[in-house]
Amino acid sequence: MTNRIREGDYVLLYLDDKRTYLVKAEKGKNFHTHKGFIRIDDLIDNEYGSSILSNTGVKFIALKPTLCDYVLKSVRKTQITYPKDAALIVTLSGIGPGNTVVEAGTGTGALTCALAYYVRPNGKVYSYEVRSDFIEVALKNVRRAGLAEYVEIKNKDVIEGIDEREVDAVVLDMATPWLVVPHAYASLKPSGAFVSFSPTVDQAVKTVEALRENCFVRVETIECLLRRIITEPGRTRPETLMTAHTGYLTFARKALKA
After folding, report:
1. Which of 8, 17, 171, 177 would staple 195 via disulfide (CB 3.0–4.6 Å)?
2. Shortest CA distance to 3 belongs to which of 47, 36, 42, 38?
3. Alpha-carbon torsion 243, 253, 203, 155, what sign?
4. The pTM is what?
């Protein structure tokens, strides 16, 4: 795999720890910042990790974007699933290469990208979304991340049912996940994973009740709080601001009925 920037690639321009910019390498274009503009032609054929100067002489570093960069800089119409939550969803559910995953709702496609990234190269994410305007935005974000071939977005209400069978995981980010629990049970493989993200504890409680009524086991709800640390000699301390509560994550596994 080449480490050189090719036309059409995305590049993360790093100015400092608080300012980064995701740009597409397109010939003949300039990217304007408050530190001057950067000629995109100067990026193409250079290596990722190299420096580039704006027309005012300010240095930027051209980095290869990570999944986190695509997620945090996605086009948004709704709140996104933060990387701290997406990481737990993928890790605790066991989602990996070759898996088939059902997701609802798609929203801006941030979590869709994370799921698709991890089911590559032979897996698939089937994402349900009722709003066509959200689907348009999600498709743009999935394509920009280079993950479109691993995703199929359906303009359908998942409360009406799940088309797929023998799936490895069902992941929900919606207002009434408890109404989908019976459909999730029918769709999942034995021992398959159920995950639900809910902003309020009332939603989580109703979901847990439905899971226990539908022969799911290992049911647990967790909250992930993330705080960065300022690490400088003589003044190392937690940052004043942190990404605290985003939602409650409920996990469960499908057990066979006796």
Report:
1. 171
2. 47
3. positive
4. 0.88
Inter-residue contact 30 to 39 (CB < 8 Å): yes
Residues 6+ apart with CB under 8 A from 77: 107, 108, 133, 134, 137
Structure tokens at 216: 């799911």
Domain span at residue 58 reads 10-65
Share above pLDDT 70 across residues of the chain, in percent, rounded to a whole number: 98
> pLDDT-derived band of residue 242, with 50, 70 and 90 as boundaries?
confident
Q: Is the pLDDT of residue 241 over 90?
A: no
Cross-strand pairs, 52: 60
Residues 142, 203: one domain?
yes
Residue 14 sits in the same domain as residue 122: no
How far apart (Å, rounded) are the C-alpha atoms in residues 77 and 73? 12
Query: How far apart (Å, rounded) are the C-alpha atoms in residues 35 and 46?
Result: 21
Report the 10 Å Cβ neighbour count for 16: 8
Instruction: Please give the pLDDT value at position 1.
Output: 57
For residue 41, give both structure tokens: 């032609």
Whether residues 124 and 241 share a domain: the answer is yes
Q: Is 8 in contact with 26 (CB distance < 8 Å)?
A: yes
User: Mind giving me the DSSP string for 17-76?
Assistant: TTEEEEEE--TT-EEEEBTEEEEGGGTTTSBTT-EEE-TTS-EEEEEPPPHHHHHHTS--
